[in-house]
Amino acid sequence: MRIVLLGAPGAGKGTQCKHIVVRYGLLHLSSGDILRQERAAGTELGKKAQSYMDSGALVPDEIIVEMMAGAIKKAPEAGFILDGFPRTVNQADELDKSLASTNKKIDAVLNLKIDDRIVAERMTGRRSCPQCGAVYHIENLKPKVEEICDNDGARLVQRPDDSPEVVANRLKTYHQQTEPVVDYYRNSNNSAVYDIDANKDADEVSVLVFEKLDALVKT
Hints:
Elements lengths: L1 E6 L5 H12 L2 E4 H11 L2 H11 L6 H13 L6 E4 L5 H12 L7 E6 L2 H9 L1 E3 L6 E3 L26 H25 L3 E6 L4 H17 L1
Parallel strand pairs: 1-3, 1-4, 2-3, 4-7
Antiparallel strand pairs: 5-6
Helix pairs in contact: 1-8, 2-3, 2-4, 4-5, 6-7
């Protein structure tokens, strides 16, 4: 199976990726992880990406697509799941062209649909330990002592990217740039698009995801 996982920040993509990888034996391909690996390895692509990042510019689509295409070639026969890619319609189109050159295609697109209000509650309510990295939530995962890490007693903090302003900007970017990717795949007729209600508890979301993918495996 070759899967694309889409959804707004805070929709639970990371959690669902882990479950899917374990259940189906797929390779988890995160664009962020691969970008960091290329930079750390000092590859030609990594150096090109670094030059853009150092100047504060976005890494061009062609560099990201080339990195991901290289990683996809190393995927096992069982397949892969793409996390954080494609982020734009152009990236999706270039990915399709790259796969088509080897007679392959994206089999399924999982679209984790979640209300912006739920995203804001999840992300702005997160608190992290600056020492051990443990993550809590002011409503759903409270520490034993308010604002204090259970592990080391450090005072919990809100990460800058979990502030209301940053969350609002990330959601705006998602709706403008990445949400149209769902329609791209829906209109392509090459990939099955499954809308998943991600407002639910993570375990309930996993059940919905597995129902769709189990049926796909049997076809």
